[in-house]
Specification:
- By secondary structure, the protein is an alpha/beta fold.
- The chain has a single domain (about 60-315), classed as Alpha-Beta Barrel (TIM Barrel), CATH 3.20.20.70.
- It has 12 helices and 10 strands.
- It is globular, with a radius of gyration of 19 Å.
- The N and C termini lie far apart (about 55 Å).
- The structure holds iron/sulfur cluster (SF4).
- Iron/sulfur cluster binds near residues 72, 74 and 120.
- Iron/sulfur cluster (SF4) binds next to loops.
């Protein structure tokens, strides 16, 4: 019978496998999340080896701009903007181009690597799509910063128009596993989400897609999402940590611990070695005092808060990065 490697060696072997592009098995992946014998520091060390190989010590800071907020017809039960939410969020239609450009300048001046525009809603109509494409062109011509758009469902034709306008990346999160999707949303399906990601990828847009942990899923479902994102070639994976949005249908049922969050980030690094892994929404509340350890598996963070919840300021985030011995990466450095 094959002997199981001792825990530290097991962690190291996972790192080496990820470095060499050898897929780790679902059983090994599950062990990262569930085996208390695997020391957290050994997992972080192994994940760091992979992260350093692909990204050095650089950290990409993303700043979100909620360019349209509220009044979404979809019923995602964790979301404060959903039609099923009783919470109150600021409601506004698409901000003016001038306001968006001004916000982009602020993001650039704050050290952002990428500017992410997020619109609530099911997806853009044709007129809205043309408007967004023109806006992307202006942003790209004005700032040496990557631009990501999250605007709901798009088809291959719409994706091609955005790509032509200069968009770098399209975001559309899977949020949870396929088997669980029907428990968090009834107005669209997991397959709808995958179709949008495939449309973006088919025209050469980078795909950004992640999940929210802490919504009642099991570890096997987290592994399933990580493997699916690998199959979809997601180049950017935001790992969000659930924070209850007052009024949203999904209650305050978060059982995450700082350690479980860090193990999840390590898992995503092992299963998606060269992807940009982001310690995304809810890092402050869920990682707490261990926040800076997220930089060992992850090479990306958000600053200045999330869609409808606050977060650390850009200054505080940049300080944490430097204090932990990492560096802030800028797009200009790649040119
Ligand atoms: S997650 Fe997006 S699609 Fe779902 S309700 Fe919120 S804004 Fe709408």
């Amino acid at each position: 019978m094959e002997r199981m490697p001792e825990p530290k060696a097991f962690c190291h072997d996972l790192g080496m496998a990820a470095l060499h592009g050898d897929p780790i098995t679902p059983e090994q992946a599950l062990r990262v999340l569930t085996d208390p014998e695997l020391p957290l520091l050994a997992l972080l060390d192994a994940a760091f080896m992979v992260r350093r190989h692909h990204f050095g010590l650089g950290v990409r800071v993303h700043i979100l701009n909620n360019v349209q907020n509220g009044l979404c017809p979809e019923d995602c039960n964790y979301c404060a903007q959903s039609t099923s939410s009783a919470g109150s969020v600021p409601v506004y239609r698409l901000k003016s181009d001038a306001a968006i450009l001004e916000d982009a300048k602020r993001a650039y001046d704050s050290g952002a690597f990428r500017y992410c525009m997020v619109l609530s809603g099911r997806g853009p109509g044709e007129e809205r799509l043309d408007h967004l494409a023109a806006l992307v062109s202006r942003l790209k011509a004005t700032f040496p910063m990557e631009v990501c758009l999250s605007a709901g469902f798009i088809d291959p034709n719409q994706a091609a128009r955005l790509k032509q306008a200069g968009l770098d990346r399209y975001n559309h999160n899977l949020n949870t596993s396929e088997s669980r999707y029907g428990t968090i949303c009834h107005t669209h399906t997991y397959a709808d989400r995958v179709a949008t990601l495939e449309a973006a990828r088919s025209v050469g847009l980078e795909v950004c897609s992640g999940l929210i942990i802490g919504m009642g899923e099991g570890p096997d479902e987290v592994v399933e999402v990580a493997r699916t994102l690998n199959r979809l070639d997601a180049r950017s994976i935001p790992v969000n940590f659930y924070v209850h949005a007052p009024g949203s249908q999904l209650g305050d049922q978060n059982h995450l611990t700082p350690e479980s969050c860090l193990r999840t980030l390590c898992l995503f690094r092992f299963l998606n070695p060269s992807a940009e892994i982001r310690a995304a929404g809810g890092r402050e509340a869920n990682l707490r005092a261990l926040e800076s350890l997220a930089l060992y598996p992850a090479n990306s963070l958000f600053a200045e808060g999330y869609l409808n919840t606050g977060g650390h300021s850009a200054d505080k985030t940049l300080q944490m990065i430097v204090d932990a011995g990492f560096t802030v990466e800028r797009v200009d450095e790649h040119e």
